[in-house]
Amino acid sequence: MVRESLAIWEISSPETLDADVERVEIEVSRLGCSNGETGDITEVDVVAGEGQIAIRASVEPLYGSAYNCLGNNAVPTTVDLGEPLGDRELIDGACEHERAAATRICETSVRWAADRS
């Protein structure tokens, strides 16, 4: 049985982000149980919109079904946004998936928002 390779992410150093940033350091974690191991990142998709940039990460699939849920490690990676961040929000695209949407980390998909005060 192949487990879906859904992953969530956090920004490594949010204090380094500003409107001019075009590359973001994130830490990716497999959403499902996998004996504490996230595995290799297989794909990172970036979709830039007018008010937000969505990043969705995938990790290698799992085979079998006997995994404990100890909490998975975070795998660092650099994401090229393809253009400056500007005043757009960075959101976790995995939170659109029903399995991720039901988790605490996806209570909000926003991982970073410019100070708009």
List the helices and strands and how they pair.
Elements: E1 2-3, E2 6-11, E3 23-30, E4 41-48, E5 52-59, E6 62-63, E7 75-80, E8 89-92, H1 98-101, E9 110-112
Parallel strand pairs: 5-8
Antiparallel strand pairs: 1-6, 2-3, 2-5, 3-7, 4-5, 8-9
Q: Can you walk me through this structure?
A:
The chain has 117 residues and is mainly beta. The protein has one domain (2-108). 3% of the residues lie in helices and 40% in strands. The strands form two sheets. Strands 2, 3, 4, 5, 7, 8 and 9 form a seven-stranded mixed β-sheet that branches. A two-stranded antiparallel sheet has the order 1-6. β4 and β5 (52-59) form a beta hairpin. The longest helix has 4 residues, at 98-101. The chain starts with a strand and ends in a 5-residue tail after the last strand. The mean pLDDT is 90.
Which descriptors apply to this entry?
117 residues, two-stranded antiparallel sheet, mainly beta, 1 helix, seven-stranded mixed beta sheet, elongated
Number of strands: 9
What structural class results from the helix and strand content? mainly beta
How many angstroms does the end-to-end distance come to? 49 Å
Q: Per the principal axes of the C-alpha atoms, what is the gross shape?
A: elongated
Tally the helices: what do you get? 1
Helix content: under 10%
> Taking all residues together, what is the mean pLDDT?
90
